[in-house]
Fold this sequence. Notes:
With 130 residues, the protein is mainly α. It contains four helices and two strands. It has helices at residues 13-32, 38-45, 49-54, 76-85; strands at residues 62-64, 71-73.
Amino acid sequence: MDPQGSPPLRLEDEAVAAIARRVVKLLTDSEAVGLIDAAELARRLGVSRDAIYRRADELGAARVGDGKRGRLRFDPEEVAKRLSSGQAKPEAPPQRRDPHRRPSRGTRTPLLPIAGQKSSARGVGPRRAA
């Protein structure tokens, strides 16, 4: 008996199989036409989520919810169609920079010479006896 005191529901094997087939059909049909979020689209295309947001209109984004900040959802088939037709162009994946490396300042400061080698820079190198 269940918590309400009713006897358990018994289904024939055929009914269980029919329910299972219906559930599978509903799940596969909805996934085929289902919308995905920006993170999933970015993962599928191999770009950053920010790149997806920057090109949301080109990719055919649909706003779900009220206001300007409604969540964005994308139809994968529509995105593929737009990318293949040239309506939208994917961005290159973001380049990752070593977080421990300082950015170059672009200066032209000459380097110190290696001992025993001649230097081509003026005023740089070992001192010569006069």
